[in-house]
Structures
1.
Amino acid sequence: MSGPLPRLSPLLEAVLGVGTDLELRTTLQRIVDSAAELTGARCAALGTRDPGQDGLAEIRTAAPVSPSPGLLSVPIHVDGEAFGDLHLADKRYGAPFTAEDEQLLHVLAAQAGIAIGNARLYEAARQRERWIEGAAAVTTALLAGEVAADALTTVAERARILADACAGVILQPTPAGGMEIVTASTYDDPVGIVGTTIEPGSAVLEQLLGGEPVFVEDSATDPRMTTHVRHRFGPSMMLPLQAEGRLIGTLALPRRRGERPYTPAERLLAVQFASQAALALVLADARHSRARLAVYEDRDRIARDLHDLVIQRLFATGMMLESTRRRCPDDDVHATLGRAVDELQWTVQEVRTAIFALQQPPADAPTGLRARVLKETAGAAALLGFKPSAHFTGPVEHRVPDRVAGQLLTALRRALATASRRPDVTRVEVSVDATATLPDDRDAVRLTVYDDGRADSEDGTTTVWQSPL
């Protein structure tokens, strides 16, 4: 490989071109395309030695490369380690690859190693930033005063989005010594997932109850996985939600069968997210307990005041009226005083009932459709990089039944997921109209999701879902 480099101008353009983008997949595609253009190959491919490290398998241009005559391959090294191999085949006009082609390819491979290293650093920084922002968003949401069930759902939803998983699942220990799925966030209908249990004796259960993370390459075939829903999923992470020595549960993030495995970086970031989320759950629980205690104390004070002041005075007044009634000979006055005594006794019973109610634990406020829609849009912000806007028309809390609300939320998740995968999305608008009507004049609820990303239409994409009420 001695002597001046031939075809210097195209080589310099190729070398400069492979380093112009910091997105890893785009960088790899530029490398493959530049290699094919420099050497005149019709087929080019870049295969990685360890697909699990970057979540990539093969990048290619034109047809797949086959080990036929005329194959030229060079290795690519990143930071001194083998990253993969650049393969070329089927040179134009049937000509063989030359030593000059190989020399060009080696120079390009050296520059590609630098570009891939930079892209890796950039991708790692972006991933870390997204997970940190997601953990901060979860902490903020939990400390805002959400009830326990909603807090777990928030953790599951945000983790699902950040991990690009098909589901976010929370499992908690059962009295029998197993674990049960208590909440699930999925793009699709989660029917059949919540309530699924891992029975005592499962090989994976000891690790989960011990607070150890478990990583599974294929949930459907791994013998440690015993639930009836395992066939739905492929790669999965099962992460302990543990803080201050307390195991709250396990966060499971499965992907669909056939999807790429989790990289070591993704696993590390997810473990850190789970630790942060667990601490936020503990703090939120403590804060919620303090708030409930303050409510109890205030209610006890009100109950004591009612009992000590109101009840005693009402009772004394009733005794006075009863004594007056016995001494009064007039029948009309006697009847009137009797009715007054009865009213006072009834009032005493009502006040005592109110005192008893004040001494009971306050019921958790139900979460309506409006709040659930806002939670979905807030969760999508971690993936989109901005929060979608949401608009509501009509009494959505009262007109939309739970069954239809669940279907609407499933449609919303799908629409937001589709929007997040579209290029150049800068704006997403969500609208829920509870005053809509169908063509047959039936009352309906309509969901409209608009995004301005590139698609077949230059004006963005609008997704509409509706259902009769």
2.
Amino acid sequence: MNVPRTHFILGVTLSSVIVAVTGITMTSPAHAESPSVTVNGMPSVTLSRKPTPGATKPEFTSVTVLPSRALMLQQVTAYFPGKGEINVLASPSLEESARMLNEMDTPNGDLGYRLGAAFLFPYPNRIRGKLSADGKTITTEWRDKIINLPANSIGKLTGAERHAMHGLILKTPVTDLKVTHTPDGGTISGVIHGGDFNGHWLSKTDLVIRITLSGNNLDASIVAHNVGNEDEPVGIGWHPYFNLPSGDRTQVRLHIPGSELAKVDNYDNVFPTGQLVPVAGTAYDFRAPDGKALGDQFLDDNWSHLTRTAGVVVVKVIDPAAKYGVRIEGVSPEIKTIQAYAPPTQKFIAIEDQFNFGDPFGKEWDKMDTGMVTLHPGQSTQWHVRLGLFIP
């Protein structure tokens, strides 16, 4: 039987940590003009702009990022005519986010992917492997080479399997931080000289992360460069929680242009079985142009065989009651799957554009291409997603 999963980190339920630490819901108002707040010794950075006078269509107004956390997006705000400013991301306030990350987080930074929009590298999603005797790491293989990863996640049910989750940069600060302000927004960029990520990866990697704000769009990109001497597999993604402004989750509509779904063992482990099944005629078919209502359906699933429009994978979150819509555009051709996480009891939906399937090195895939990009020394790859707004 499928059971809604809640991740445990070091034996603590993450959802309970958020409530206990913040004391607020995930849709608390953001204040784009608030002073910067320090997270892990580095101040937050906000780009902001004023809506066009007399604007008749929605516009982005701000983005706040955390340089100490690989430039993760803490909040994005937008102006909707007749409604004012709306939070695009479901996230605690900047002050509560800082308190949560400074005081309650794990050494791996796992609370970072429970708010805002964290970037994930060199693997989004789950990786299974042989658990070490002390329960702290797992080992897996790529091209007969051993990869040793933090075993930073586990489900809550008896018999749940500890595994690696969401990459190695959740708590990594950027260097070479550059902030450019323009009348229409601006750009924030930073660099991560990751090396081999403390021995957890096969080569050495530099990342360039860039976020650009304008009235019409918000762009986020990561360029990964293999600066080492070995081949390496690379998966890139993010974990954004999109706000549902009306609070009525049942009538929110979701559009995902994916024709196949990856079957999982259950919604606690959420491990892929290696089977891809057609969505046609099932509750997981969200391909209609105006989407399908979420109702009370639980989602923690991965769609593939994505249809591209003008070369872009377009996912839409539509909140008819709020007359609100956001487009999530997967620009990079390397984006092969969409993971969506939507618990019925929450007022958010996570839409995760990523290169790869879950457990990409797993034997269950039987040598299928699981979406990881192989970078030879000197090669690069890019992940790029663009957000847009509309009134449905």
3.
Amino acid sequence: MIRIENLNKSFEGNTVLNNITTEFQKGKTNLIIGRSGSGKTVLLKSIVGLHEIDNGSIYYDDRNFTTMKPSVRKKLRQEMGMVFQGGALFDSLTVAENVRFPLDMFTEQTPAEKARRVEFCLDRVNISREAHRLSPSEISGGMKKRVAIARAISLNPKYLFCDEPNSGLDPETSLLIDDLIHEITVEFNITTIINTHDMNSVMEIGEKILFISEGEMCWEGTKTEILYAENKKLQEFVFANPQYKQIRDLRREADTD
């Protein structure tokens, strides 16, 4: 579980996040949604410590990340996995070597132990046969995302952060990546936070959804509740896609029958 209390962040006097308070649940896919420039990326980077917040508190379970010494933060970061928007894979390394990289950096495992862990992670995301391909030059966009997920779980994290994991993917591959992240979250009981503007992801795997607009938390709830929410800014965001307006109208018709 990750808890945020009264989080504020500004850059050069411009407020980007204003008094954010929420909780991200363990074993759930927690989604941060909002338009480009809403502050959701800054929030994700603040949670993992890439941005220092102006004030407020961030708790990893009962540990106050905000007041931790750098050495303690470094140790906590070994409990985190990151899936970056572009994958952030190393061009000169194979698929297997990319997945092994965190093990080389942060563990004292033997080569045999690392090999077993890499094999497990690649098998879990169904790309074992691609282990010796150069990444990312020899694999597809969907494969790159799978490699990024395999690398993110290599250290068996308690917390998983995904920044626009479906960026650049076709709808079918996006659904596969969503399902994979959700399965891993449930299977390993991870606190997963996904930063996205993809409403398909919201409706597929949005167990806890946080909507941010202009740096403020405007709404939170589930994928079922989002279609019924009486929030003007949220409605403008959700129903920009006519598909979801149609779903909402059909549900409301059914409720009145």
4.
Amino acid sequence: MKRTIFILAAMLGMLNVPEAVAQHTKSIIPGVSIDNFDMSRNGKYLTVEMGIDMAGLDVNSNRAVLLTPRLVNGTDSLDLPSVGVYGRRRYYYYVRNGMNTISGDSEQAFRVSEKPERLAYNSPIIYEDWMNGATLKFHRSDWGCCQEILAEYEGILGRHDEAFFPDLIFVQPAAEIVKSRSLSGSAFIDFPVDQTVIYPDYRRNMHELAKIEATIDSVRNDEDVTITSVWLKGFASPESPYRHNTDLSIGRTAALKKHIKRLYHFADSIIRTDYEPENWEGLRRYVEKSNIDHRTEILALIDSDMEPDAKEAKIKRLYPADYRFLLQNCYPALRRTDYRIDYTIRKFNRVEEIRRIMAERPQNLSLNEFYLVAGSYEEGTKEFTEVYETAVRMFPNDTVANLNAANAAIRRDDFRTARKYLDKAGNSAEAHYARASLAIREEDYEAARICLNKAKEIGLEQAALVLEDLDNGRRK
């Protein structure tokens, strides 16, 4: 029997179709309609989605119909997984002969009596360079006995054209020779008047001591961490003679050192102490933010060159009401201990180990280690983006962390997030180039030229190449 081929002139969206194509098409081939068609690229995948309406598809008992999306560009082509609809006799013919489907295991096959009226089709395929500019056709072939194709129909759904996407530059951070970190805080430990002995059950001491212990435990129980020092600095308030306050601040800091040493058995060289006899800096911050009656005058006295005892006595004498207020509401908070736990973290070199640490304790990773694990993922994927998002959370003020996170956001067309990170990415050539890449993706080519020229002036060769593309009129 002679084969009959019908080519339908459904030239939909053939020109200037962007990376993501969305159309509504009806009756593209006999018996079949297509709606919600979309063809878009994300990282290494090109994904084809559509709704296939087969309500009007009638298949003779001794025939089969094969529906196949086909990507074509010149001599290159790729058949996507087919949908097969089999008449009753044709279905049993395949069963008797031990055959599953016409096109192979990837085919979605239905008996005509069981076919859905509408099928949601989704097929991701690995992107190859030849697919840029490729046309997606929708092919129907009608099969009779003896594996003979009786008729073929074909319609065109659209074309995939890659948008102009400059190569993004992810900067590798310098590796840290020693991964040094620290945790710090303040504890407000109460002592009975003129005493330097710590009573854990006194007032809120149990809670305040627990803050220091929790900070130490958070790193001490980590097998990848080595504590290098525990630094303590005690502060006293100004209401007693300066010499007496000096003795109190030294003695109370020493008492806390003894308490910590007894709990953790640190060597003397690990615990370092310092002291501030009178916390005038803290008093000044409090007064400056307050609305006390003689705020300006008291600030002037605090900033004066008077001896501490004379200064405190004058405030008390000239402004007794304000002094009583400060004594009650401010002075208790001035008596505190600042602490800092310094530690080092071992380096991680294996990608699988870095992935585990990122999931469990991302604060233990360096920016360079984040960069190494990002390289194990395809650009634009969720996993790739998550690495740089985590890195910038750990290093929120680092310019390289913000630059790489911005590039990851640009790669996923998340322009709002990219702008947020670019605000903190600095003014390196790579940062200007990233801003140009964002402008190109938003089709603001004049802004892109300004940023590219800045990057070029600093010496980034890639910026000159992209400028040349723009000069040659490349937009898509």
